[in-house]
Give the backbone structure.
Amino acid sequence: MALLTPQRERSTPAAEEKNSLGYRTKIILRHPATLLGVLLLLVFGYLIVAPVISLLLGAVQVGFGDEAKAGAGAGSLTGYYLDRVFSSPVSGLFRIQGVNAI
């Protein structure tokens, strides 16, 4: 006795269109919560991520007044500031606190 298996329904162009990425994106973008989420993501990205990146770049770039101390031109990459932070006498306190936190 042979098992009868149902044949797959052939996909129609309308069914394929509903499964496409463009169709799903269009439906998702019509939802107000999605638009609000994208807007807030852009605002918080500008207000939080951009200043953090600026601070991190400032830690590895020579500042305008420190050209002579760092021995490089303004804007060039350096480890001068990080070296000052981690080799200062006070840096031992930070290491102790870091070990205690772990």
